[in-house]
Amino acid sequence: MRRGLTVLVMTAALAVCLLSSGCAGNDDLRESADSSSHVVVQPEMLAPQRVIDTPDPDDLPAETMLTPEEVAAYGEDACFTVSAISDDVFARMVGKTYKSNCTIPRDELRYIRVLHKNIDGDILTGEIVMHESVANEICEIFHELYRADYPIERMRLADDYDADDRASMGDNNTSGFNFRLVEGTDHLSNHARGLALDINPFYNPYCIPSTGYVSPPGAQDYANRSAEFPYKIAEGDLLYTLFMEHGFRWGGHWNSPKDYQHFEKNGAVIY
Q1: Which of 67, 100, 129, 269 is most buried (CB neighbours < 10 A)?
Q2: For residue 91, is pLDDT > 50?
């Protein structure tokens, strides 16, 4: 759903009222036509007035497309925010990413709103939930990526996919917090702590080289990291560099599995 900025064009209406008592009658109007006492209409009085209604950008759903003019009207910085988990956001999470056995206190999680650009250069709103200890850094990194036109296809809460990690990855959705296990293991992922995020995951898959396993399904072609393709994360590119500068680890450095979409913070908060 697209909510742009509402432009209201107000048409100026001119009421000519003569005499001290208010609006004149017909006779008075005829008399005034010959009178030197009349209202002079200035050009600016007739010019349409353009009023821009700018609702809080945090009210825009994720994947709302904006024009550069709309971003300027909001103020770019106002589109990059970190806040506590509101009741509305928490209602989306409960029973999905925030499961009944979740051990992470709600008040330690943060809801982050950003702008990002896709491969076509479209400006989109995005959202992600992360742990409070890394939330400001994540917001800063995505602001830098936005300014540099680094492509991110979409950023929605994994709750929009019923917390199904494969479904989110298959849609190339960038996401963070999800109280879940590491795929194929019985221990918690750093996603469960809000300390990890997966970026452009369809094009940067999770791979086990020894078996040829690739996740999500359909992403086998993108396990070949010598190939060039959209949304690829490469060692040394801007996204990689920013996360390294902020002390994150990249799953692409692991021997096995290889998790090219995955960044997590060193010094994890353990529960």
Answers
A1: 129
A2: yes
Q: How many CB atoms are closer than 10 A to CB 154?
A: 18
| pLDDT given for residue 53 in this prediction | 55
Please state the domain extents for the chain: 6-51, 60-265
Task: Name the amino acid, one letter, at 102.
Answer: C
pLDDT of residue 186: 79
Output helix, strand, coil percentages for the chain, rounded to the nearest 5: 30, 25, 45
Residues whose CB is less than 8 angstroms from the CB of residue 198 and which lie 6 or more positions away in sequence, other chains included: 168, 169, 174, 175, 176, 191, 204, 261, 262
pLDDT tens digits, one per residue of 134-173: 999 999 999 999 999 999 999 999 999 999 999 999 999 9
What sign does the CA torsion over 250, 253, 255, 258 have? positive
What are the C-alpha distances in Å from 225 to residues 65, 197, 219, 232? 31, 20, 12, 8
d(CA 90, CA 259): 28
Q: Is 98 exposed, middle or buried (0-12, 13-18, 19+ CB in 10 A)?
A: buried
Residue 120: half-sphere exposure toward Cβ, Cα within 13 Å: 5
Name the β-bridge partners of 82: 112
Given a contact cutoff of 8 angstroms between Cβ atoms, the answer to whether 65 and 117 are in contact is no
